[in-house]
Amino acid sequence: MTITATTATTPYPLKILCVDDNADAARTMGFMVRLWGHEADVYLGPGTAMDAFAAGHFDVALLDIGMPGMGGWELARRLRKLAAGRKVLLIAVTAYGDAEARRRSGDAGVDYHFAKPIDPVELRRLLAEFAERLSGAENDPAESNAAGQGV
User: Fold this and answer.
1) Which of 5, 64, 53 is nearest to 29 (CA)?
2) What is the CATH number of the domain that holds 50?
3) Residue 54 in contact with residue 38, Cβ under 8 Å?
4) Angle at CA of residue 39, ends 71 and 150, nearest 5°
5) pTM of the predicted model, to two decimals?
6) CA gyration radius, the chain
7) What does the pLDDT look like over 53-112, one tens digit per residue?
8) How many domains, in total, are found in the chain?
9) Residue-number span of the structural domain to which 99 is assigned
10) Torsion angle of alpha carbons 29, 34, 35, 38, nearest 10°?
């Protein structure tokens, strides 16, 4: 599912890949970032999401971790490899909020780890900072490690 229309404006809209095996969660993520002025492509599984990532230019990937088959950590590793050095922000959005899950996210190349339910204010701030950084206006938000969410 691709959601391309936006209802809000942002100075630096991002193209965001949303991946979750739960259809409601995936669509909600896509809807939320669309409301903030970004473009969202929503996928219900890692296989189709990886194909879309390889074919398109995404700035951010919001990834569920606990998906059947290929989980979010393996998907993150593969997306990092597909990005081939291009700056892409990988964000885990998961029910796993413990220290071990955060460590595994970091090992997989995830930049930020949010436990569900996510704080939309924090996610919106993080996306805005990253968009500004991509535009050349700010430093990398991954370096700020805001709110202890960075891995």
Assistant:
1) 64
2) 3.40.50.2300
3) no
4) 50
5) 0.85
6) 14
7) 999 899 999 999 999 999 999 999 999 999 988 899 999 999 999 999 999 999 999 999
8) 1
9) 2-148
10) 120
Identity of residue 140:
D
Beta-bridge partner residues of 121: none
Question: Which sign, positive or negative, has the C-alpha torsion 54, 113, 86, 11?
Answer: positive
* Alpha carbons within 13 A on the beta-carbon side of 145: 5
Written as six digits, the tokens of 119 are: 């704080």
Instruction: Using alpha carbons, select from 121, 91, 12, 31 the residue that is nearest to residue 41.
Output: 31
The edge-to-edge listing of strands for the beta sheet with 2-3 is 2-3, 39-43, 15-19, 60-63, 89-94, 112-115
Q: CB–CB of 57/31 below 8 Å?
A: no
pLDDT digits (tens, 9 = 90+) for 95-113: 999 999 999 999 999 999 9
